[in-house]
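Model the whole thing, not chain by chain.
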Amino acid sequence: MTDLLRLADVQMAFGGLRVTQDVSFTLRAGDRVGLIGPNGAGKTTLVNLVTGNLRPTAGRILLQNEDITHSSIAHRVRHGLVRTFQITRLFRTLTVADNVALPVLQRRGLASRVMSSATERPEVRAEWMEILGLLGLEKRAYDPIDVLAYGEQRLVEIAIALALKPKVLLLDEPAAGVPHEESHRVLDAIAALPRDIAILMIEHDIDLVFRFANRVLVLANGALIFEGSPKEATLDDRVRSAYLGSYADARRPAQG
Amino acid sequence: MTTILSIAIDALAFGMVLFIISVGLSVMMGLVRVVNLAHGAFAMIGGYIASTMLVDTGAGFALSLLVAVAGTIAILMPVEYLLYRRIYRNADAFTQILMTIGLTFLIIGIANSAFGPTSKPIPLPAALSGPLDIGFRSVPAHYLLVIGCGALTALALWFILEKTQFGTRIRASVDNAAMAEALGIRTEILYAAAFALAVGLAALGGVLGAQLLPIEPYYALRYMVVFLVVVSVGGAGSILGAIAASLILGLASTLGKYLAPEYGDFFFYLTVILVVFIFPHGLLGARE
Amino acid sequence: MTGTAASRSKGLSSLPDWVRGEAAALALVAAFALIGYGLFPDDLALLTRIIAIACLVLSLDLVMGYCGVITLGQAALYGTSAYAVGNACIAGITDPVALLGVGIVAGALTGIVSGMLITRFSGLPQLVISIAFGQLVAALANKLSAFTGGSDGLSGITPSALFGVFDFDLVGNTSFGFSLAVLGIVMMLLLRFVRSPFGLMCRGIRDDALRARMIGTSIYPRLIAMYAVSGAVAGVGGALSAINVGVVGLDSVSFELSAEALVMLVVGGAGSLWGALFGAILFQIFQHIVGAASPFQWMTIVGLVLVAITLFAPKGLYSVIRRGLMKIGRSRVPS
């Protein structure tokens, strides 16, 4: 299997404070990996490092064997590294169709056309219709974002990610804030994502992670303390103590 | 050497005027995040009141200054209640800019029809109006008043913000408004008080600086930019930043007038652009 | 709200958007011509001035309404173009169409420079830089009196006959016709432009720049490109002004003009080309009538109107009227 994303000893320090410590792991095609850890463990920082919103102070990040440690955000996205946001970030004054059409246009290299049609361009329209259909949003295509229920907005977030045809997808708490009665739609959408892409899901809800992931990474105080199957994670002393708060004694680097 | 010292003194006086007027705006913008384009108009109102007092009623300078500050606050508190309250913190920058530029136009229009388009004198008391020999040259005596008041303003503000309960509350609200409210700080009253403080400082600066920035209807537009620049360059909410920015910009403006008067404000605005580029987050690294 | 797409779900028209846009732009030209001739038959100079300034307001809408850039320095683009056209004409390029070209290029170039400065920042620093850039250009215009005539203005701009046939006479028929045709073309092109992928992406950037970056867009170059277009449109306005009036003054680069353009845009409604146009026309006719009657009260009234709009119609008058029309007619009105 090919390595899609590889982190090698990635470090991040704000001033003297090391918030990410020598993190190493690899994502391969088809991987479904959960990234968990107690509050303040540095999960979101780690995601920001991978996506380029933050630059690591040491270590390397490779996307399909290309060193992207110092690449721009745009470059990473164009090469298949895509994320969703914990707090929904959508183009709020545009319609659902526009929201999905924009990444399609961008990916197809059409986003700088100045005199042709945008959302209604036939091949673009076909693509966003298909994505919205997959997510059950086709009836919402021409609604502005603001009239959508929050659960539906989360689905648009996933639709945007899909429109970018990711090879590696980072889902930052995809079900956060979604009312219980809507959450199954989000979970179904995640389950239906293309098999061959690698997905890293950051999630608080352990049940959700265990249903989704075939591998779990546990982060505590900025360091990876465990990597293995969900079942092993529940039996691991370090993981348990990290969640129970007596982590300080058990610190040691994980195998990566 | 004498030229350098001369420039330094002129720059210091001009910078202090900028500081007195702008620091109120800075506190407001730090606290309630309002891009207030009408701040210059507030200073102008102070100037008009003082001029009316001095010329038409023959009142003394100190009394006129006091009435100007109190009067400007009294005139503008209803405006705070009716307009500003709606745009504190949450409104987008567009709305803030539009509303405050609208208010500026309104004040200019009223000033124009009430006082006419010419500039209004603010005669100084005898002790301050003459030249004062400071060894290598003579400077207008009111420079000393301006510089002294600037220093006093800085000290007083520092004391208010750092040492009083009012200041603690303001700082708490600047950092985290929701938390401050949860702790029982009544932000409405706090904001109103900060607004009054800002307006009072604007009026003070408007009167004291009238020899350098003459009071006329377009005052509100002409110097609005300068005050905004001070806040942007100094960093909203930072007293030290406002002092530093005022002095730098005072120096840039004075240097320009001495060395290349035919270029007008060219070098002043060039400095502004350079400083913003070099310190995009304000001179002292203040947030936003 | 993008009413265009929202109402398209009803599957109304089989015509592509841009065809309808062109039809609308042509209809506008005709309507404006008729109403203009009807209302101010003896004051075509007013109508041509309205058109020139309307181009400035449209250019402002492109960066403010469509990209969310906050600027109070847009007059720099308009004025630079006007001065460039004036100088070109005095230097011997007297063909009006060529002069229009000169204005477009000068405006676009100034747009690129100002865009590179202004779009580097956001919020207050952005506003400050935009003002500083505008004032910088104004100070230069005052200083470089060899090119600008300083405070006397640049005069002696006498373009030759349009297409070698129509003289720019005192009545102003040629000026009015020429300006109207140019405005029609500008509107036609812009209506297509803002619906293009590029225009849509700009609106995306305005909504959420980080989100736009996370779908792989490079924001800074895109905003500069938009500034080039905006400068070209402002340049059209500056060129028309120089050609029609024959004099370019310091007011064409002034802060006041930037602020007035902003007011016009807001009165009409930012983020809509029709709103920008509507605001420019309405404001200037109003200014012509009221401002002439009592110039001192003009500022007061503008101030009151602005405050009232932010309180009661924050999306501009055009959107209010549009909503009203849609309610009455239950049909689609362009946004």
